[in-house]
């Protein structure tokens, strides 16, 4: 078996983790979720979820990964708790299912890059979305997106993931920052900002049962938690890194990109009348933006920039999703990385075909991941770290950390009590929300 790789530098790890975190979740879902769920009022719930639940949970994955130097499944075994490997197994399944539909949306982005260059969506943005989002074109672009993902993962941790994210993450920043400045000059920009950020508490109060699980699910998704990505990535890390410092950097940068995405999207939508979507279904972001790009000055170029950012963000996340099952198989069997990544990638691509044929099925994959798999996976990891693993994990947090051992003590109690309670509640609300959507329940019972 070849020797296990490690990141070449601390910055390499941070950029790879930021690359995983920053994705379609930040640029595609976040602005629309915020706008349709009460603006700044939703933002407060979301930020609380990110910093109070997501950040400590991320540290939980970091200690498991770095202590064990193993992939998400073997990590539990190598720490001496083999029966908890199911937690990692849940992550492998979760990342597999998520990548299956994530890649289909990545394929849509490819179609919109082509459409920005050729002008194909300018005439009839709704028809364009219909043509590229489900059917043979969607299957083909999904396959291309998966091929790009497989290519990078097959090259390895340093030559593939680290090298790619070192270029992609700074490019995302420069492009999205540039776009935010550019669109601030559009007529209607200030109306866009106030729509995005003005708090509407009544929306939250009216749908607490739906908004809380969405905000928490969004927080976990955007931070790439639950599926073992952060376990796998931190397993390639040296002992002298400060996990709390690295984790804070990742969480803050990820949040900034999400906020910045809103500063790009809303001025564009408010530059033309009637472009602001009523609700944020899977396709509304694409159709609403494409119709705005077709009407504003310089819209085609802004559109191209926007969809390129979206592609880079999506790819730097999809590689982390494929890395979870790949590292598991490579560590476990000693197979070569290249055929493993190709084989697993092809299986994911096949699993994604139904979602490339029907956006309704894609919506279901998405809802099951957000409302069920993600909170469940994070809950299991938190219970493991807080109650099952012994002190070795709290000690691990102190290694290389300048935050002091009071920090790790508070963190441990937080992960023991606060996080399980918060996620348990969210999980109940999430299951309820799935049952309401499926028509089993006619209205929410809890917080209804
Ligand atoms: N964090 C990514 C995004 O916001 O788009 C998506 C993601 C990647 C979720 C990896 C989960 C994961 F394990």
From TrEMBL:
Record key words, sorted: Membrane, Transmembrane, Transmembrane helix, Transport
Compartments, record wording: Membrane
A GO CC term assigned to this protein in UniProt: membrane
Membrane spanning residue stretches: 7-28, 40-64, 84-114, 126-155, 167-186, 219-237, 249-272, 301-322, 342-365, 372-390, 410-431
Statement: the UniProt record of this protein carries the keyword Membrane: yes
Membrane topology: Multi-pass membrane protein
InterPro entries linked to this entry: Na/ntran_symport, SNS_sf, YocR/YhdH-like
Name listed for the protein in its UniProt record: Sodium-dependent transporter
Species for this entry: Halobaculum halobium
